[in-house]
């Protein structure tokens, strides 16, 4: 789309995340771009890759990942033996970076709280407070118990993604930003279903498709379609799943089937609506607006550029304030767990010996908690039974459920199974066998009664059933209807 500025900004942020802000969570991943045309394609793609390598450089510093490399057919097959050799003439290998987005968000919130921010979850803004034309705060509803209260503020920043149209409408009918929801789904399949030491990026008619290494799994995605149904629970339909399988099977020696799919998940991209009808062609750029005094709105953008979006929104808000606010310094603030991460990583064998936890598990903890992994190991020291892996989800330990509840704001079993961990998409049974154990570990920490504990388990099982059912439906409408009815928030009893 010739959005060079946008690509450069994203690459510079990626480099900052890899090297300073979140080296414990963001890691480089090699990808192959298979070439199908002789002569013109290699120099054309090579130029693009060169640009990608150099746009991310800031002040001569490394951009945090190795540069691209050309491979011939033999080298390509050595890197990805399961690729069909008749669909490519060679490839270009380049590096990108990946992150578990939910872990990243929790880490950003915890870091902000560490520096004095107040964070609250499960509070919905139901209205804004006004003094004349000015917005002076928000009226919020606690979704756990239904109570409402007011929060006053000098400036309010509205950053509600795909809900921007609705939240803007609470304050003005002169809403400046229009946001469209574009649904993207991903499939999770076991790593052993095909052999490759690298990820893949494949061209499709509208966009590209990624096959991304993810621990003991592959993630395959994504789709890009307009979504006008329930925004809280975008549902993957059978058509979406078949589309991804069909596209990836074009390049694999042994095709994947529905039986190979361990998990499926769907998300919504908040895209700034323009004239273009195709969501794949809308820019991923972000925009900050100030529709009425006291209220700033930020929307669009990419996950990678979250820090720039936040900086721009706060700058806009503080411009309207009387007191002087120092310039943003978030490009120099490592997230919690980043400081000392490499030193702790080097000591991982010693940590394993001292804690009695296998070094592979210590590595897993370091990759999730960085230098804070010691806090999880301390829980195990105090209660050795917390070193037990969860049933059906061997990658995760009981201690992680406790830590998610005491340190990471988890309020319900689905918070733990879907976001603090990824059991809901990584386990064959989607967390069905883990959920009673998770509920038992959380219950005493959150003061749940027996009824509440059972309610949590039943609710999670209903959610898994609804998601499975929705994924068998032929289209968005029927998938949405099947997914509806199981809400996310449980009332406190
Ligand atoms: C399939 C897919 C693949 C993607 N891949 C990439 C990628 O590779 N790289 C990349 O950089 N980006 C990627 N993105 C984009 C990225 O995920 C989004 O840009 C980002 O998550 C948007 O974040 P947001 O906070 O602006 O909005 P959202 O994530 O939509 O968050 C909005 C929040 O507002 C809250 N909210 C809504 N209404 C209210 C209310 N009334 N009161 C209080 N809170 C409210 C919601 O609960 C929600 O938490 C991808 C997105 C998808 C769907």
Automatic annotation (TrEMBL):
This is Glycerol-3-phosphate dehydrogenase/oxidase. Belongs to the FAD-dependent glycerol-3-phosphate dehydrogenase family. Keywords: FAD, Flavoprotein, Oxidoreductase. The lineage of its organism: Bacteria, Bacillati, Actinomycetota, Actinomycetes, Micrococcales. Pfam families: DAO, DAO_C. Residues 469-493 are annotated as: Disordered. It comes from the Bacteria. Transmembrane segments: none annotated. Residues 328-452 form the Alpha-glycerophosphate oxidase C-terminal domain. Its cofactor is FAD. Residues 5-305 form the FAD dependent oxidoreductase domain. The keyword Oxidoreductase applies. The keyword Flavoprotein applies.
